[in-house]
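User: Write out your own:

AI:
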Amino acid sequence: MQLNLTFEQLQRWSSGITAAVSASLPEEISAHFTAGARELTASDQVYIGLYLRDSASITIYERDPDDWNRNYDTRKYRQDPFFRLFAGSRQDFLLPLSALDQGDFHTSAYYRDFYEPSGSFDEITGVFNFDRNAAGFVTYLRRRGARPFGVEELAMAEATADATRRVLERLWRQWRPPGETPPSLADLSGRERQIALLLIDGGCAKTISRSLSISPGTVRNHIKSVYRKLGIHSQVELMAAARGGDLSPPSLA
């Protein structure tokens, strides 16, 4: 699909991403990102924040959260269909609300108690997993009275998803709980580090077995050990941790 963008829009978006990934404060990250994202997707509001599996979600604003968002963070978000999908899966996704509506969304308690009173009408939400407990999310929102999001806006969100992930990874690094130790390749054996680095480079059990002259079964056993020691569950999570700067690989043994 051809996306109808002006050079000025792309320039503002690019400048916002550059500023966001180098910002020091979460509020600055949000302000730089959301300004350009609202324009690109013709959204009334764009939110970025964190989903945490064991505690409340966090939404970062340029200004103080409004009443509805405080209510969402502290009580309602576990009923959010996007959060429920995140909680039940470790897969990244970028979906419109219509993809999760099985015909009962507008009769649900979540819709009655939060979504409708907040003035929300339609949304596209993306979730990008960082580790076993946390993910970053972006929500493109339209208020009541606007037209629904269409295929062009979804295509725009998909086209900019890699840049969005970079911003959310920056946000997670700024918000990581104090004292939490990120996973480290130093915790692995020499062979496990070799395999972890090859996985980060996009290798699979078959190609790694050829590269290291060991059987695919042995590689798979090492991969299980790597995931267990690092507290992750997939190659996608491992690659995300490496991209986010949470792994500082030592030299190959």
Q: What stands out?
A: Residues 43 and 142 are 6 Å apart (CA to CA).
